[in-house]
Structure formats: structure tokens, C-alpha cells
């Protein structure tokens, strides 16, 4: 029987090219940083370099830590821009090993208060953006040879919202449900061709976003709902993304891995 390939636990992405969308801030920034520490050439794809939580831009931080990263201004809802991003990333090392589809926007409204234009924009970034990025990455990966059992790996960011209601936040939850579905479908359709596609579903992760997400009532609800005695940190999600992006996750495809301190289990 064929054995799963070996992997280096210390530098799990050594020499690999990895795009991380929405990596200027929050969870994407933590993923980019951890991937770079594991030897990846990281392409930070975002609409801005400004760090929501403050601090120096992701690429500067990674470079200062001895890692390899470049910034490419990209709107994930723009198919042409995403195709150019994938082409350019693949030119770095001759292949695109990993894409992490993390970028998102938020516009929390319940059904009766949600304008069509706002629904469309949330869907354009949070769901269509994931479709566009998966399609561009998969097209590229299909042209690559198999390495460590895979032509390439896709990691999507879903959410526990999308499985259970996101209170007063219809469009976000619907988009995240779509991301979870899309992940399984892509995994099933392309497993035979060596493309691995998984999702990470964070629970409440404290990042730098302001507004409603740092609202004491929202945080209090999250604390009451989360069995683990703290809320999540971006690094909790980054570690799960690293597992799914690396050869350590062998024979794992189509999953939606909860990183939620037990929220969905309680
Ligand atoms: N923070 C949480 O509690 C939580 C919970 C569940 C799921 N998630 C998911 O994790 C991911 C990251 O969340 P976060 O809290 O770090 O978000 P964040 O708001 O801190 O960061 C989102 C990043 O996406 C970028 N972005 C926005 N629109 C873009 C576009 N059109 N193209 C490219 N980049 C764009 C932003 O500039 C920003 O850097 C998202 O997919 C989110 O839905 C987060």
C-alpha cells in the first residue's frame, strides 16, 4: 500500500508559493506570518496594506522576521485581477502550491434592513470572491505536476456562522454557508486530479476589526457561547490553516474544520 509522503514538521511549506487573500489584517495576517515562518514565499493579496489592528504592514513584518513576502493589491471580487495575481504568484517559483481564501467584508443587517446593493457587495467579496480565487488557482494547479500527492491545496475561510444563524447578519452567514458548500464540491470534483480543498471555520476570534465585532454585547454573547475559557486568537486559526496547507494533512479533503473553542459542540 502507498505510504503518505513525509513532511518536515519545522518548515512545512519550505519553498512553496502561497497566496493569502485579505492578509493585511487579522486572521489572514497571522496565516501569512506563520506560513512565512514555515518557509513559504507568501503573496499578500489585499485591497489595502493598512493593518486594521495597527502595526507595520504584513510584508514589512514578515521580511523583518526573515521571511519572504510580497504585496499585490487585489480585489478578490475582480476576476481579471485575481487571474493576474495567480499568474504572477506562480512565476515566483514556477508553481502555485497554496491559496488561502480569507478576505471578507461585513455588513451586519437582518433581512428587513438589508439593501440589495449591500447584499450584492457581501456576496461579491465573501462568496463570489472565493469562487473566483478557487477557479483561478485550480486552473493553474491543473497545469502543475503532482508533488507530495497534490497539484495544489486550497484553504477557504468559512465560519460557524453559515452553520448556525449569524444574529442580525444575514448576508455574511449565507455567504459563509456557500463557502462551506463550495469547499466540499471542489474537493469532490478535483480529488482525482490532485487538488485538495478544505475550509477552516473559526468561532469568535478577536482581531482588530472595530465596530460591532468589538461591541461588548457581541463579545459577551461569544464568551457565553464558547465553552473554552477564552475567545480565539488569529494564531489558533493560522495553525489550522497551516495543517491543511501542508503535507501533514494527507488524505484530508472537503472538510470544514471548526476552530471555535467548542462553540458548535455545546
Ligand atoms: N474574526 C472572527 O471572529 C471570524 C469568525 C469566523 C470567520 N472569520 C473569517 O475569517 C476571515 C478573516 O477574518 P478577520 O476577522 O481576520 O477579518 P478582518 O476584517 O480583520 O480582515 C479582512 C481582510 O480582508 C481584506 N479585504 C476586504 N475586502 C477585500 C477584497 N475585496 N479583496 C481583498 N481583500 C479584501 C481587508 O482589507 C482585511 O485585510 C474572514 O473570511 C472571516 O469571515 C472570522
UniProtKB/TrEMBL annotation:
Keywords from the named record? Oxidoreductase
InterPro entries xref list: NAD(P)-bd_dom_sf, Sc_DH/Rdtase_CS, SDR_fam
Q: Which Gene3D superfamilies match?
A: NAD(P)-binding Rossmann-like Domain
Pfam families for this protein: adh_short_C2
Stated family: Belongs to the short-chain dehydrogenases/reductases (SDR) family.
What name goes with this protein? Glucose 1-dehydrogenase 2
